[in-house]
Amino acid sequence: MIRMPAPDEAVLARRSEIVDALRRIVPGEGVIDSEPERRAFECDGLTAYRQLPMVVVLPETTAQVSEILRYCHANRIKVVPRGAGTSLSGGALPLQDGILLGLGKFKRILDIDVENRCIVVQPGVTNLGISQAVQAQGLYYAPDPSSQIACTIGGNVAENSGGVHCLKYGLTTNNVIGVELVMMDGEIIRLGGKHFDASGYDLLGVLVGSEGMLGVVTEVTVRILPKPPGARALMIGFATIEGVGHCVAEVIATGIIPGGMEMMDHLAIEAAEAFVHAGYPLDAAALLIIELDGCAAEIDHLIAAVEAIAGRHGATSCRASQSEEERLLFWAGRKAAFPAVGRLSPDYYCMDGTIPRRQIGTVLQRMEEMEAKYKLRVANVFHAGDGNLHPLILYDANRPGELQRAEDFGNDILRLCVEVGGVLTGEHGVGVEKRDLMGTMFNDSDLAQQTRLKCAFDSESLLNPGKVFPQLCRCAELGRVHVHAGNLRFPDLPRF
Known about the structure:
single chain, 496 residues, Uridine Diphospho-n-acetylenolpyruvylglucosamine Reductase, domain 2, seven-stranded antiparallel β-sheet, globular, FAD-linked_OxidoTrans_Type4, oxidoreductase, flavoprotein, FAD, FAD binding
């Protein structure tokens, strides 16, 4: 079971004083301190783990966020930033002795700049809301997580979210060009902006995917793109999982970059088809949905090329969408796969790891062996184009020991991802879920360097502590200076 840092009793003893101070900063209904109301914030999308926050504060302005953080920094109070709470890695799991800083009231679109192909929004705007705001201009925001109707752009920045179209158009990090950031000491800074590039260190690249550990984002500028002139989707059934893996690898090796390339295994196909009735082939061991976009002639050429590749790797069916409505229907099952699988089991544990494309068949075969070991079923739904797996481990939390077996199963899947040359996460983040597995991918020196980077932004480790790093260290512990006989080592080096 996942453990969080023990609460600081001295901070808990000052709870009433802290609540009063927050109410002076955010008057009205912006501070939530009663137990029943705090219960709504006890977990995020990783619902297996719950913990009441000490107090919840819902600011409405950047100035209020700055004042809250300045107060917490001066009084050594921990802060957990929270968006829509859709994180699947426990990134927004609250702390018993910490303030939960909710950004749900930051939901304004500040500027639509068609000429510069960008839009400036507050972090509480939903992912889908950005595309809806510019659709009349023929534009859209490319990263599209399955939770896009609910997840917010602030959370997308924290987790570096992807989606079905990230293969061709990039993850959040490739589409965010500027942020307004409030540091832990209350300082407000800007990174990036509407301009093409910035000089100096790529601090924006550091921030995207930092899981709320470096600062609190209060404004985001993202790149918006013109919609392709056309798009069609191919729905391809395969007799074997290995055939899917080989097909995916050859499509990419040929130089074809689809707008999206998604896979579902047989269990996920059955669940999704019963949910949306998209016409998925129920006799297939695995299904690929491949979207190709561009002008009509280009799409026709690419469809023929992909069909030929699929045929060489054992495709049993291949159907191309003939209308925009049919294309959206093909995607509807994939977008709804997570809730659809919820019909198969009382609970499921959604994993997130990334592997080299060529290893898809090997990894899925090994996962079948693990199913027998743990006596739990898995439905696989993932971004095949970039090897980002999302195994859904089915279990029943009411049965003693099943949650622990599901966690152990998931940990073995993630270890397997690293073993075959992949990584622990693709787009869900590390949070608390993968925190204690970081040692399988990084050595002590790697983790120390990452922690030093956090210390450069948050020297007291007050922002979202207990996440990502398997051991909570103070910056002073990482920065010890060894003195022998009154002499420093390497005395000629500059000291900061």
